[in-house]
Every structure is written in C-alpha cells, then in structure tokens.
Amino acid sequence: LFSAIEMAPRDPILGITEAFNADQNPAKINLGVGVYYDDNGKVPLLACVRKAEAILIEQAAPRTYLPIEGLAAYDKAVQELVFGADSAVIQERRAVTVQAIGGTGALKIGADFLQRFAPGAQVYISDPSWENHRALFESAGFVVNNYTYYDAATHGVNFEGMLASLNNMPAGSIVVLHACCHNPTGADLTVAQWDQIIAVVTSRGLVPFLDMAYQGFANGIAEDGAVVLRFAKAGGPLLVSNSFSKSFSLYGERVGALSVVASSAEEATRLLSQLKRVVRTNYSNPPVHGGKVVATVLSTPELRQLWEEELAGMRVRIREMRDAFVEKLKAKAPGHDFEFVRQQIGMFSYSGLTKEQVASLREQSIYAVDTGRICVAALNSRNIDIVIDAIAKVL
Ligand code: LMR
C-alpha cells in the first residue's frame, strides 16, 4: 500500500521553518513564517495572557469536553470583537460562532461547510494569497481560481483589475478576502475601495469569506474589524475566520473561530447545527486552554485594556522596523527604492526579492519565503543590519 507513495513537497511556509530549525548556524534569521518576535528576537508571552493564566490556575478547573461549538464565553467574546458588541447581527441573533483550531481550522470548517451546501461553487482567492488558501479549499473539494489583486509595478493593489475579476465571477462564487494586513503582500484596500467591493459582492450575489488573522496589526482592533461589520450590514451570507495566534501571541494554542452571518435567527440556528456536524466529524470539539485565556482577557476590563496596549506595542514596533528597513537600505543600496515597504501594512512585506535572491539569502542563513515575502515582525535592532547587508549583497 505505502511503497508507491511519493514524497510530498515541503510546505512553502512551515517548510522554511523546518529548514531554519535544521540550520546549525547560530546567527541564522527566520523571516519566513508570520510570527511576531520582540526586539530581543523572542516570541512574547503577553502580560495579559500571563495574568489570565494565573486566574485560570487558581480556578483549577477540570478538563472536561467543551461543547462541540466551543466555550460559550469565548464564542460570545469573539462575536463582539469581530462584529462590534452592539451590532445588529448580534442583537438579532443572526451570527453564529464556533471556536476553531486556529485561523486555519476556521477556514477548514468554513470550507467543509460550504462544500456540503454549495458543492458546485467556484472559490476565488487573491493573486497572490496566503499559500495555504488554495490548498485548503482544494482539499475541501473546490476548484480554486485567482482574482486580480497585486500590482508588482506599484507594489499596491490593482483595484480596477480586482473589480473586473469580481464582475466576471458567476453568482454564488465564494470570494476569500483578507480583512486587513493582506498576506503576503502587505497591500490593503482603502475604506472607499472596500465600499466598492462590498457593493459588487452584494449586487452579484457572491459569497464573501473574510479571513481576519491579523486584526489589530494594521490600524487598531476596531479600525481593522470595521470592514467585517460593513459586510454584515450589506446583508447576504457572510463567513469570517479569525485567529488569535498573532494578536495574543498564542500560536501553539491554536485559538481561532469561524463566524457565519445568517438572514434570520431561525436560519442561524440551522447553520450552527450543521457547523457542529462539521466540527464533530473533524475533531469532535476544540481544546480548552487557549479559548479560556482569550475569553478571560476579553471579558475582564483591565486585561482587555492591557491586551490593547500590548497589541499596539507590537503594531508600533513593526512600523519602526519598516522605517529602519527603508532608511538602512537607502544607505546600503542607493540605487534601489524600497520606500514601498513603509506603505505596506501588517506583518509582511512583499519585498520584490526574486526566488534566486531569496536562495542567496538562505546561503547566508537568512530565511524568507520563495515569493520574496519577508516577515517584518521578525526584524529587530540586533538583526536588522545583518539582514540589510545581506539584501544589499544579493540585489
Ligand atoms: C504565515 O503566513 O506565515 C502564517 O499565517 C503561518 C502559517 O500558518 O502559514
């Protein structure tokens, strides 16, 4: 049975972490995976998380099964974060939320759910998109297409092209949109552009699936989440996956959620029953710890305040690294214009480095994604000069 099975290709992102881990050079730098590191190069354990964990340890609760849809306090807190506490979809009980195994798990529950009820629909992802989007929707049984998004010449969004793509999609198509901090390009839509996208999605009967893995890393928690509420207000079906991997620095706890907006409370009840079937047949019910940590922080005013401050700190440090990156490259590689890195937003920069240049960087133990995506959140005051020197060398 197994003898003819071929070797699978290495994952385009996590495969880089594997290569990085195997590298014996103590000065190695990983700009591949989307993880925030502090200025000491460490993944932070947020103070709000530590305090919530102290409360949970004190409670010494038994580890029984959670409900299939997850911890009720978590699901409620997520809804309020994603849609805004006083939004109509919550008041009218039209939103349902299930706890998920990270943002990836949320996407997979959503994809499996859609495959059950819209098996013939086409899925559209941005060109380019997070590497796992295509694989994930294909593995759920969909045909996955690209819509126009990035313009390499301007390092921004080809907005007219994007609108044209949306206008050509068959009604009922599923459109995966990055709510903020576009991964991998760091090029986001403006508020006015989003309004146009929402109008086209609604008028053409498309099904928006918002992926929000970086809420709080662009302009703020409420600012970044506002687009979700605007989609919800437009009416029509809506799916939202979100993740606390980055915003709570809880990567390994796998804390995410899928929210689905229905047209009535009664419809929402039916949707939840079906989402529970998808969860039950995938992994039965979610793990306890991460969900409890997030629910505790979000529902305790002092901890929530602390979280907002800590998240703002991460957001500001990334911006500082963008500035430093641009300024230092200006000095080291004067013939090259990297000013666009300052305009990009979130954890990533689509640096424009070619696959060959990325390979040359790897020879110097600096790891980036083959597409040229670098994680700006992995730069710090100690490693940035090394990175800049290496990039100047390969340019
Ligand atoms: C990334 O894009 O690097 C992160 O979302 C981590 C992952 O799972 O790929």
From TrEMBL:
Keyword Hydrolase listed: no
Needed cofactors: pyridoxal 5'-phosphate
Gene3D superfamilies on file: Aspartate Aminotransferase, domain 1 (3.90.1150.10), Type I PLP-dependent aspartate aminotransferase-like (Major domain) (3.40.640.10)
Signal sequence extent: none
Any one GO cellular component localisation term in the record: cytosol
Pfam families for the chain: Aminotran_1_2
NCBIfam families from the UniProt entry: PRK09257.1 (NF006719)
Family designation: Belongs to the class-I pyridoxal-phosphate-dependent aminotransferase family.
Quaternary context: Homodimer.
Protein name as catalogued: Aminotransferase
Record organism: Janthinobacterium psychrotolerans
